[in-house]
Amino acid sequence: MNTTELIRKKRNNEALTKEEILYLVNNFTKNKIPDYQFSAFLMSVYFNGMNKEETSALTEAMLYSGKVLNLDSIPGVKIDKHSTGGVGDKTSLILAPIVACAGVKVPMISGRGLGHSGGTLDKLESIPGFRTDLSITEYKKVLKKVGAVLIGQTKEVAPADKLIYALRDVTATVESIPLITGSIMSKKLAEGIDGLVLDVKTGNGAFMQKEKDAVALADSLIQTAKIFNKKVIGFVTDMNQPLGNYIGNWLEVYESIQVLRDAKKNDLTELSLILSGAMIYLGKKANSLEEGIETAIKILSSGKAFDKFVKIVEEQNGKTDFVLHPEKYPKAKYKEVIKSKASGYLSEVNTYELGMVGIDLGAGRKTKDDKIDPKAGIIFNYKIGDTINKGAVLAEIFSDSKTGIENAKKRISLAINISTSKPKKVKLIKKVFT
Ligand code: URA
Fold first, then answer.
1. 373 Cβ partners below 8 Å, 6+ apart?
2. Under a CB-based contact definition with an 8 Å cutoff, are residues 99 and 308 in contact?
3. Is the model's pLDDT at 419 over the cut of 70?
4. Which of 81, 206, 257, 342 sits at a 20 to 30 Å CA gap from 224?
5. What is the CATH number of domain 79-324?
């Protein structure tokens, strides 16, 4: 096959065959197609898209670029959840122990922060000692023993995605439905799961800001999961404000502890219970989504999910002392509060900007090699529609950088709007695909 001819074919908006896609992915992964040619191919996919057959061929080629894990030796149905990312989204930390308590196995291979959005691995690694780099043997051992395990992508799992993703990141080709589908599904299918719950975010803090694009992405992910014979439930959920109140790595672990141990109730709790319910249902431990949610509520209020969370931390080498006594965690050098200058209702939040401010405070990376400060972040106290009195503490900010704090204070004040008329409450769940 001729790479230039295949690029031309896609550029002219013709569909590629399965063999042609396999040739491109395999040869790029083996370093036989240079970056400049694969970039041109990616850009032609960005502009012309791919049909269902091409998307599934791309996913298959990426999936078999590495190992597909076999978890048959571990009893039980294995179900994972994937979120397309946002600000304050820490549901994995809450739902993994809940679902494991229900008797469903949760093998999770998660990612790091990407752009303005946080990543589960960075959050978990804020717990001193927590290892996200388990070998496949260790991964299976923890899963069998505890019922849930959370690790990062290994060299063996979907290596094509790692290479393609790095190129997409610097060629402005991330926001493409077939490319996102191939990337997410190749990693998830390689985990050895029986089913998957998808949380596709929409709103000003999501990669797919428009609801119609999020629905199209959910549809593509679901179609692909079905082609590979996986059970799947998809949700399109709101990301027009941070999920929960805490943004930043240790802060997000701390808020998860508040939900798991202290019965904190907010939109984070609600979404975690719904996603847990869907996983419990797919894992055959409930006869309907509603029954799954009921089971999740009971497990959460019994305190068993918190015990399971502590067990996961222990098995993955984390210091449980900090999870059992979060008040002992080291504090950021500087803390500031932002007070409201007016009374009214919180009507708008620039969620993307809050994510970016979090990065500037030290909670994320600006370059690939940046070090994260686990203590840095924001506690944002209000939800859209809440009444705010003049002088009320809107947000608390934490950082080791004094200038970072000063800049954050200005930017957060500009990122929110307080109106005199009451806005409509935000609908958390926009769409469900069962
Ligand atoms: N998450 C992924 O893993 N891949 C994408 O392309 C986008 C989000």
1. 332, 361, 362, 363, 399, 400
2. no
3. yes
4. 206
5. 3.40.1030.10
pLDDT digits (tens, 9 = 90+) for 261-278: 999 999 999 999 999 999
The pTM of this model reads 0.94
Mutate-to-test residue for ligand 1 from 184, 213, 221, highest number of ligand atoms within 8 A of CB: 184
Secondary structure of residue 397 in the 3-state scheme: strand
| Domain residue spans of the chain | 3-48, 79-324, 330-419
Contact 270, 404 (CB under 8 A): no
Q: Tally Cβ neighbours within 10 Å of residue 67.
A: 16
Contact 336, 397 (CB under 8 A): yes
Give pLDDT tens digits for 287-319: 999 999 999 999 999 999 999 999 999 999 999
Q: Which CATH architecture has domain 3-48?
A: Up-down Bundle (1.20)
What CA–CA distance (Å, rounded) separates 319 from 332?
19
Output the CA 416–ligand 1 centroid distance in Å.
28
d(CA 173, CA 46): 6
Closest by Cα among 152, 102, 142, 107 to 278: 102
Contacts of 251 (CB under 8 A, 6+ apart): 377, 378, 379, 398
Ligand 1 lined by 183 (C-beta under 6 Å)? yes
Asked whether 184 lines ligand 1 (CB < 6 A), one says yes
- Cβ of 111 less than 6 Å from ligand 1: yes
Q: Can you tell me which residue has the tokens 């040869």?
A: 27
Ligand 1 within 6 A of 180 CB? Answer: yes
317 φ/ψ sector (left φ>0, alpha ψ -120 to 50, else beta):
left
